[in-house]
Amino acid sequence: MPIKYPSARAGLEGITQDAPSPVERGSDAAADRITGLDALELGGREQKGALGRRVWRIAWPKLLAIAIVVLAWQIVVWAQWKPEYVLPGPGTVFGELGTLITTGGFWDGVRLTMIRAVTGFGLAVVIGTVVGAAVSRFAPLRAAIGSLITGLQTMPSIMWFPLAILLFQISESAIMFVVVIGAAPSVANGLISGIDYVPRTWLRVGQVLGMKGFGKYRHLILPASLPSFISGLKQGWAFSWRSLMAGELLVIVPGALSIGVRMQQARDLSEASLVIAFIIVVLVIGILIDVLFNAADNALRKRWGLTGS
Predict the structure, then answer these.
(1) pTM over 0.90
(2) How many CB atoms lie within 10 A of CB 133?
(3) Helix (H) or strand (E) holding 162
């Protein structure tokens, strides 16, 4: 039966000619799905490649520095500046270190040392934060002890050990005392500096928004002072770690075989390779902690839009 309206016939013919068949639609959808999967796979590869390049960009300067130090060390050994039983070569020391890390006693010593470090540093952070917040809050208190905090920060930690031994005898408390008093001033100064450099306009905005008392510190001043506070934490950790290592060498608590005690025992037995192996262990732990602080600092900078990536 002929169609009554030619224009409608033409429209239907155009639709039927242009519209794809069900088979074609199925093949197009499959092609789209394949293309999407390829894009996801390529995107994953690009992300993995970017991550690998970023890790390599961070790691290669450190690896180069290690290679230079080891090479210089080996050259000094070859030059026979000291007998090899006094200054062994890298091969001997790394072999001793490889044997050392397979023993349970070594990891017990590392665990004890890290418990001391974390405990002492945690106490220093609490005390330093409270003191720093109080000094930055009250001008008379700053005038009274502001310079004292800086003086304590610059004082060598080893000077506190005679007093610590008199106060606490040969005990864990003597070591903790020196660790805390060595780290707390750096934490306090970091917080004070951060609070001092909070922009005045931010404080005025907070005042307009009705921020007062603890809420003002909680939501405005403390977050704004975080960059300087993290720098103070990092410096405080360095002081606490050095104080702890000095304390473990000087204050030998009976039955507590920490890294410092084991290193002192190796020195008493003239085992130079073991002494240097423990020095490397202490260095590696310090580097790993520094990497954690740098990661926290970079994350904070990225959150604040202070980095390009």
Answers:
(1) no
(2) 18
(3) helix 161-168
